[in-house]
């Protein structure tokens, strides 16, 4: 379940407690042996995976190993990309149907590295989102500006062309990752205030397109040089529903520290302190 609906008795409005997502995007890293040893160590460092949705996205060839290494846990495995056709003469591509059959539940769509190095556009992102949803996968769709200028217009266009054409039903299954390109792999994290402002902007677009309930429920996670030492202040922002982590997810100790952060009293208390009743 993505989120729990709450009713604020005073205002009689609904809001949502959104289950945090802690995602690992391994990019082009780790072979089979490294995947196995990561999971062995990582599993021993987290005693309860229930405080967040943990999603690990290894390279395609490691997926089967990751799926079996995650057995008997609630760790989800995701792919980093998909093609929008189910099958056919498309050399080198992998479809949503195949990804689902391999045991994945999630897939990253439209990462900035795919947009920059492999020619992906908002239009292909949309096709991939539809294909992922049809295959029964949860897409983690990435948007973000390349430089710290024109943030509003870049996010508006990426949302309008790549995401907004989805139906409300399709949209309800998405996770959005805000990844400012200038912060990826650069050691330059967006400050909590900058990240929260961008998340608010994105949530505002969701409100305009699909209404307040959809906006309250969608998880918007942050990506860009997230590490155990900067994660807490980012996570403390009400708008930030988790992380998509590159570099720090390759190390079992630092990724486990990010997952364990979700257990912290402060986070759960502050969310629950919106003091409403479950419906
Ligand atoms: P880094 O955490 O290495 O900056 O990468 C972020 C990212 O691109 C996750 O998708």
Which helices and strands, and how do they pair?
Elements: E1 3-8, E2 13-18, E3 21-25, H1 32-45, E4 53-57, H2 63-69, E5 76-79, H3 96-101, E6 106-109, H4 112-117, H5 122-134, E7 138-143, H6 151-162, H7 168-171, E8 175-178, H8 192-210, H9 212-217, E9 219-222, H10 228-235, E10 242-245, H11 252-261, H12 265-272, E11 277-278
Parallel strand pairs: 3-4, 3-10, 4-5, 5-6, 6-7, 7-8, 8-9
Antiparallel strand pairs: 1-2, 1-11
Helix pairs in contact: 1-11, 5-6, 6-8
Bound molecules: 1,3-dihydroxyacetonephosphate (13P).
Using only CA atoms, what is the Rg?
18 Å
Strand order across the largest sheet: 9-8-7-6-5-4-3-10
End-to-end distance, in Å? 14 Å
User: Which structural class should the secondary elements be placed in?
Assistant: alpha/beta
Order of helices and strands: EEEHEHEHEHHEHHEHHEHEHHE
The second-level CATH architecture is Alpha-Beta Barrel
Bound molecules: 1,3-dihydroxyacetonephosphate
- Tell me, rounded to a whole number, the average pLDDT: 90
Overall tally of structural domains: 1
Number of strands: 11
Proportion of residues in extended strands: 15-25%
CATH topology: TIM Barrel
Q: What overall geometry do the principal axes of the alpha carbons give?
A: globular
The CATH homologous superfamily is termed Aldolase class I
Instruction: Let me know the largest β-sheet.
Output: 8 strands, parallel
* Separate helix tally: 12
Ranges with pLDDT <50 over ≥5 residues?
5-14, 265-279
Please give the share of residues in helix.
40-55%
